[in-house]
Design goal:
The chain is an alpha/beta fold. Helix content is 32%, strand content 20%. It is globular, with a radius of gyration of 21 Å.
């Protein structure tokens, strides 16, 4: 039998990521002394599930970004969604109360087009699956979109709400005919107000099943390129990545050698965090973007996790995300999932909010 209290949310050793613990998300006052974001010179945001859901701002997101501007901490935006141009993303952010410049935005569509321009000569015929934004990026780098599968030397696949079965069939024909296959990203779902809906990765899986092989290249997160480009463009020496997905945002930050904060406003939930492998364990976990202004150290002893008869028992009280901090400390050390029960009303309420009960 053993027990553990909630500890620091800071990374102690990236090579020993099991020692990471999650930080709480409550605001720590309007100042800046000792809060989480004070240790960084750039915040790189994912978009869907972090700042907005289906073009609707997530509560508190605009206010958090305004506080960063007041503090003089620059922001950048890196998204796997290939359905918008950087200018369109900046316009949307500005419209929902988060002023942004296209130069602050890095999209998987833009990164994919740059990659193709490096690999293929100007004028190369490309079959484009996705939104008009992806087609525009392809044209901008000097490649030629085509609609005939037999002419294509490259198939580029990105998210588009109007992608049809006929488009997937054309792509399969082109790839079987020898065309290179490049996907902008492999996100199986997208967050929405109605819950996760199919993303580009789901259509990539459909083609993978039909062809019996994966794409030649997948450009977006968790590949670290988007985060590295964002940091380079904004001169960030110590960036913090903020995202809602363990398999893209958090793993991408890990690969880029950057700290990360997972917010619980999008796709990944507490159960996924507890079961996460080393490369998908965030440096911090927060309920929402208010976590940027939390103090990275929890008060010890508020929550306690006891190992008892092959299960973990949560007891104590305090901020509900701090309960997840305590559970992460023991789950990541044990490196195996176990049943969790709550001892007392506060613990039971926290587990219910975390959807662990």
């Amino acid at each position: 039998m053993g027990d553990s209290a909630a500890g620091s949310g800071a990374v102690r050793d990236r090579a020993a990521a099991s020692d990471r613990a999650a930080a709480s998300d409550s605001a720590a006052g309007s100042g800046g002394g000792g809060d989480l974001v004070g240790g960084y010179d750039l915040v790189v945001f994912d978009l869907d599930g972090v700042l907005y859901l289906a073009d609707q701002v997530i509560p508190g997101a605009a206010e958090a970004c305004a506080r960063l501007r007041e503090r003089g901490i620059p922001s950048a935006y890196a998204t796997n969604n290939a359905s918008r141009l950087p200018g369109d993303v900046a316009a949307l952010l500005t419209r929902i109360g988060i002023p942004a410049d296209p130069r602050e935005v890095v999209t998987s569509a833009h990164a994919t087009a740059l990659l193709m321009a490096e690999r293929f000569p100007a004028g190369t015929p490309v079959l484009v699956l996705g939104a008009p934004a992806l087609r525009e990026e392809v044209v901008a780098v000097g490649l030629t979109p085509v609609s005939e599968a037999e002419r294509a030397r490259v198939v580029v696949q990105g998210y588009g709400p109007d992608v049809r079965m006929r488009d997937l069939a054309d792509a399969a024909v082109a790839i079987r005919g020898g065309a290179a296959w490049i996907a902008t990203n492999a996100d199986k779902t997208l967050p929405s107000p109605r819950g996760p809906v199919p993303g580009n990765g789901s259509l990539v899986v459909a083609l993978t099943t039909a062809l019996g092989r994966p794409p030649d290249t997948i450009v977006g997160k968790p590949d670290p390129g988007l985060f590295l480009e964002a940091a380079r463009e904004r001169n960030g020496q110590r960036p913090l990545v903020v995202g809602d997905r363990l398999d893209t945002d958090i793993e991408g930050a890990f690969r880029a050698g950057m700290d990360s904060m997972l917010v619980l406003t999008g796709v990944s939930d507490a159960a996924e965090v507890l079961a996460a492998p080393v490369e998908r364990r965030p440096t911090f976990v927060a309920e929402d973007l208010g976590g940027l202004f939390a103090r990275p150290l929890s008060r010890p002893g508020e929550w306690r996790v006891t190992e008892l008869d092959g299960r973990w028992e949560l007891s104590g009280g305090g901020r509900r995300v701090d309960a997840l901090s305590a559970l992460c400390a023991v789950a990541w050390a044990a490196d195996e999932p176990r049943p969790i029960v709550g001892d007392g009303e506060a613990a039971q309420a926290a587990l219910k909010w975390l959807r662990l009960a």
